[in-house]
Fold this sequence. Notes:
Blueprint: H1 14-19, E1 37-41, H2 70-82, E2 87-91, H3 101-109, E3 120-125, H4 130-140, E4 144-148, H5 154-161, H6 166-178, E5 184-190, H7 199-208, E6 211-217, H8 235-243, E7 248-250, E8 260-264, E9 270-274, E10 287-290, E11 295-297, E12 306-307, H9 309-314, H10 318-332, H11 352-355
Parallel strand pairs: 1-2, 1-10, 2-3, 3-4, 4-5, 5-6, 6-9
Antiparallel strand pairs: 7-8, 8-9, 10-11, 11-12
Helix pairs in contact: 2-3, 2-10, 3-4, 4-6
Bound molecules: S-adenosylmethionine (SAM) and iron/sulfur cluster.
Iron/sulfur cluster is lined by residues 46, 48-50, 53-54, 92-94, 126, 148, 352-353.
Amino acid sequence: MTAVPVLIGVRRPVEERAGQAAVSGPLVDTHGRTHRDLRISLTDRCSLRCTYCMPEQGNEWLARTSILTLDEIERVARVAAAAGITTFRLTGGEPLLRPDIVEVVQRLARITGPGGEPVELAMTTNGIRLRHFLPGLVDAGLRRLNISLDTLRHERFRELTRRDRLDDVLDGIAAAAASGLRPLKLNAVAMRDVNDDELVELVEFAVAHGAQLRFIEQMPLDAGHTWNRARMVTREEILEALSARWTLTPLPGRGGAPAERWTLDGGPDSVGVIASVTAPFCGDCDRLRLTADGQLRNCLFSTTEYDLLPILRAGGDAVETGIDRMLRSCVRGKLPGHAINDPSFLQPARGMNAIGG
Ligand code: SAM
Ligand code: SF4
């Protein structure tokens, strides 16, 4: 019989411990979807108060003690990569508000999959403080950026985000445009009587900055629960507005991506639409989410969460196995699609800032 060495009191590195979890293969759900994308929310705090996401005041913040530490995030990420996750997208709240953001990127960018392939590291940000952080983030291994921009008008921006920070956002976009990060994407939530007269301008701005504009249909995820289907701007309306300016030609090869894409006047420039409400893409969804307080979620709209916090905080060598099991339970529990269009739909208790968009 071969003797099994028992290590007492020796804490093995996270890299080594994550290997133990890669025994059960990829994260395939009961509907045959393989999960490859993990959205990691780093904080629920934000420098803006977008009306479709957060209330102006009175937000119930996550307890600071429950926010995952850098070591905890890395531990989850390593197990996820061992189970076949290939992309991490950092989000929030505003990820750049996290004081250790450069170190988070550095640590996650070093992670590799079961075959030794590096993960892809992306971030969604409101752009404020981006100029300051960008060189460090790129050096640390950030590969892709999505920046949110709903309007180019100062007064409108102030009303929509309840903060007068448009110049800071534009400064961040200029820095991103000057960097080598491509594709660079700008996200805009289309809103009736708010920015629906600006759709063409937003696309022109993106093209001028070497970026791709992606319009998002507004979803029922605002912390104030004020979403109104009758008022949301639909995919069809967005396409109609853009068609008055460009000939739109659908681009094939969407895969699991949330955005449908069209070339503008034959390309190479393009525009995308994320139509979660009127043309859901759940059948190809490959995403999981980790909230800043350690809850795994299998859908933006889910009302069920899988709590990693007690597993992480229990410590010891069983943590990796526990994370792996929880990832698999979360994937197994995934429904075929969200039910926004069902009369019985219940909006999740968390606002988008606390889920991670
Ligand atoms: N603070 C960062 C930002 O704004 O880019 C990252 C987090 S934010 C929650 C991620 C994305 O979700 C943003 O592009 C934002 O516009 C989008 N979003 C937030 N609430 C939304 C809603 N109710 N419907 C559609 N998109 C929403
Ligand atoms: Fe903050 Fe992003 Fe939500 Fe706007 S959408 S309030 S920038 S988290």
